Amino acid sequence: MSIRKQVHKYTVKSFECDRNDTLRLLTLLNLFQDISDDSANEIGIGYDYLRAKGKAWVLMSMNVEIDRMPRLHEEITLKSWPSDRSELYTEREVEVWSADGQRIIRACSQWIVIDFASRRPAHLNEWLPAYEPIREKVITDGRFPKLPAVERDDYTEQFLVRYDDIDRNNHVNSAIYVLWASESLVPEYRIEHLPARLEINFRKEGLFGEKVKVHTQMEGDTSLHSIQAVGDGRELARIRLTWR
User: Fold this and answer.
1) What is the number of other CB atoms lying within 10 angstroms of the CB of residue 228?
2) E strands present in the chain
3) How far is Cα of residue 23 from the mean position of the Cα atoms in its chain?
4) Whole-number mean pLDDT of the chain?
5) Model's pTM, two decimal places?
6) Phi–psi pair at 192, nearest 5 degrees
7) Percent of the chain, pLDDT > 90?
8) Which domains does the chain have, with CATH numbers?
9) 165 Cβ neighbours under 8 A, 6+ residues apart
10) In 3D, which of 135, 129, 95, 127 has the Cα closest to residue 10?
């Protein structure tokens, strides 16, 4: 099966921006999810296709490099395509382009398919139709690094997993983890800095009603975060944010 790049044109809304009229990182990740979902549906490997077979997509890792964040009322173009596949995972690329033809954001992500009931990984070739990825990779070096553990707590913050944090897979939506990580930093730092790079390793599922704690370690303009469930101490995600 031949596939094409999915393209979305978008205008940044006021309610999607922070106090400095800059697109929120949470919204950027939601836009990534939206175009990735449309791309998967067009190929025939979307949520409904897998759910009918008792399976679901789960994001494992993501790497986002940001030259600049879009601004209020800015017209942007997002492009996304699957770039690789194996027996156990698939990879996907996303680009964000400005109206004047500058690529301002690029991202890659790694996905697995799980059995919805057992929550265990499934072999992709058994469940996905044959298709040939577009083997163009927007990040070539260090695509999915294994992030280190947090060694000290410079900041901590605790959150309750709300009903609206849960997605259609019945676990915490991937973008919420990044919101928690950035919220663990003091407001004064956030006012003066914008994200330049985001790296995520997902480890366990967060569930409705749990309390989670963000452990944050600062090294210059890099914040390393470990998000853990308070009840049993399991680590849900590691996140590294580089700021400018």
Assistant:
1) 20
2) 6-11, 55-66, 75-85, 90-98, 103-115, 155-160, 195-202, 211-219, 222-229, 235-243
3) 15
4) 96
5) 0.95
6) -95, -5
7) 94
8) 6-127 (3.10.129.10), 155-243 (3.10.129.10)
9) 172, 173, 176, 206, 208
10) 95
